[in-house]
User: What shape does this take?
Amino acid sequence: AQTVTQSQPEMSVQEAETVTLSCTYDTSESDYYLFWYKQPPSRQMILVIRQEAYKQQNATENRFSVNFQKAAKSFSLKISDSQLGDAAMYFCAYNDDDKIIFGKGTRLHILP
Amino acid sequence: DAGITQSPRHKVTETGTPVTLRCHQTENHRYMYWYRQDPGHGLRLIHYSYGVKDTDKGEVSDGYSVSRSKTEDFLLTLESATSSQTSVYFCAISDTGRYTEAFFGQGTRLTVV
Assistant: This one.
């Protein structure tokens, strides 16, 4: 069965600094999509960034970028110039045919 | 924002009573999902649907049933609520499943006393 592992339950970063959240997954598929979602205190789930497995280029969305290592099955999220509004739970997700599988999440604290 | 609403948003119920949560979408998306979110466990899939009357179990389906008689509605039923089912429940929808992101409802906080 496919699994998604986020090994950092909590992280802290100073405002304006850069932080990297890690995610590993397990799959035997070659074509799949990976996502990072953000859940602020409002509880609303928000898509941050997506990566298509067949694309070698790492996805980037403004201050958010990923380091996708397909062979290592690693999909980390880098947040540059951290802002107070980035404080949230971050979930890594793997889309498997009909199901979407989430990691346990990383709670990110931003220190002013 | 994707048109997805969950009802009720909050509910307190007694152990042993049946409870039904509703998810309604206006996006005509094929896939619908029910997750529960608990501290330290992230989002765990309960049941999902890949079409009208087509449903399947997720990793934590025991004690839950679902029904989807229309594209827009996906119901989650706790036949006999237990305290272990106290949680925040999220409904999500997706257009193509594998290739697109999920859009989430705002969640339902269920407390079983």
